[in-house]
Model the fold of this input.
Amino acid sequence: MKNVSRRGFLGVGAASAAAFAGMGLAGCAPKQAERVPSTDGGAWSWETAPEAIADIASVEEADVVVIGAGMAGMSAACSAAEKGAKVVLLEKTGAAQFRGIDYGAIGGSLQLEAGIDLRDRKEDVLQEVLRWGDHRGDYRVVKAWVDNSAEALDWAGGVLASHGVEIALMPIEMQVIPDAWYEHFATDAFQIVPTEELIAEGSEAGYEPPFAIGWAKAFTAYASELGVDARFNCEVKQLVKSEEGAVTGVVYSGETGFIQVNAESVVLATGGYGADEEMLDAFVPHHAEDIHNITTPAHNTGDGIRMGAWAGGAIDPAPHCPMYFDEGVEGLEHMPSIPLTRQPWLYLNDMGERFCNEDMPYAYVCRAHNAQPRHMKWVVWDSKWEVEGPAMGMVVCKDFRSPLHDPEQIQQFIDEGKILSANTIDELLAKMDGLNVERAKETIAHYNELCEAGDDTDFGKRKQCLNTISELPFYGVHAGTTLLVTMGGLQINDSQQVIDGSGMPIEGLWAAGNCSGSFFFGDYPITISGASHGRACTGGRRAGQFAADRAMGV
Ligand SMILES: Cc1cc2nc3c(=O)[nH]c(=O)nc-3n(C[C@H](O)[C@H](O)[C@H](O)COP(=O)(O)OP(=O)(O)OC[C@H]3O[C@@H](n4cnc5c(N)ncnc54)[C@H](O)[C@@H]3O)c2cc1C
Done:
């Protein structure tokens, strides 16, 4: 952990708002802006705005500036342009960024065609989001997603389909475990059909999973057709404010130096901060001990959250919601999301004991193993996995039917010893450094008895998940938590406007996706398929529309 002051990061918006009331950032000082070190004066860097960048090479005009070309930003830029706004989209990497496999909505057209109709369960979904977040989310903000997600995801699916990217509904049996003790909501609006062409292109370009490149291709093309002025390798450094406190533009770093783009409306869509240690320290308690590896993209450094706070926006109070996956396998710097090691097999802590019902939503599995010694667990299974794994009926990214299941990769990991294997239990356990082997053997023997009886009287695991450890070869991994993304950010109202510490909107400033807050807290509700993408797409689309309306005087 870094040696930084923990002084009051609650209500940072108010502090920065006071510091910047009435100041136009671009004109207040002749010094080049620098990120204020967190150790400077004991403040977090987002509490103290840097001095405005003065050496502006050129000034341009637009109606709407969107910062970030991920799911939220692309949705915002295209939606604003559809309304006729002149849009500049600024992205700091070289391409649009997309990931993942599911995209959440309620009442989408493909869902309805397939007979999946959750429209009369909107309140249940909404309450499920709030419950996962200890009711710290804003009902009105979550409701805005629930009510608008079908339109937004149908629109996005239409953009994909009309640009040659095939989509299909994820079957309900890949979204819902009927007899699980926790309810799943079949909210996936569609998935991309992973063609060989997309996989080849996406692998080359580094998308994860590779076929997520379909979004980048379709939306980059659509933005271009709409006349969106998309500029890549352009990192936005600061927002510009009027004397009245409205956001009136941005300053970005381009090939020719610092360029200011003035606009009536600015949409922040810069994603989360999983690659920013200072923000993790402030907002994700125990992250250093709990997180085994990070698949957060390197570009998620919290830029928009910082810039929004400097402009007076309030940040969700800590702790924030991390998206935790139970896929951090020791020995693999980065674990592709293969379902095999994430099944509810037998889990042991270092003492050689079971410690939870292994069949929990994976965010809860992470919380349970994070509470164990070394914040990790041993996962143990045997050669029956090809039959027993699918029979457990896990869904979405744990589903063996998903494109994430890759038998060749599994074999490669076994051959490389990344997945431990042995022909006797003794031999397997001997490979598990730090495990109490004698106690583990007793636990396995007892667990096998429970499995044979078909009744987990110890932890209440579903009968289908009770599989003996009995047939060689035996397998195991040491697994911990992976951080995918962070999901807390700038507080917003139900029109996606960034609000200050007293709940007042900052004129001209919207936020969407993972740089926005007021939605997810606690843990990511994986019982609601694609909730994170659903929020990003729906929020981005609405932010873009509101931003265009303001710019065009509607
Ligand atoms: C491996 C992986 C798999 C996932 N799978 C799923 C899934 O199946 N379902 C699901 O719902 N969610 C999934 N997620 C989470 C989901 O991808 C994110 O929640 C979502 O992408 C957030 O979108 P966003 O637009 O807010 O942010 P991002 O996608 O992070 O986009 C932000 C963009 O802003 C740019 N940017 C940042 N700072 C600046 C700056 N200063 N100037 C200009 N540009 C900037 C970034 O480069 C980036 O392109 C997954 C995440 C990961 C890591």
Notes: The pocket of flavin-adenine dinucleotide is lined by residues 67-73, 90-93, 97, 99-102, 208, 235-236, 269-271, 295-296, 299-300, 303, 484-485, 513-514, 530, 532-533, 536 (CB under 6 Å).
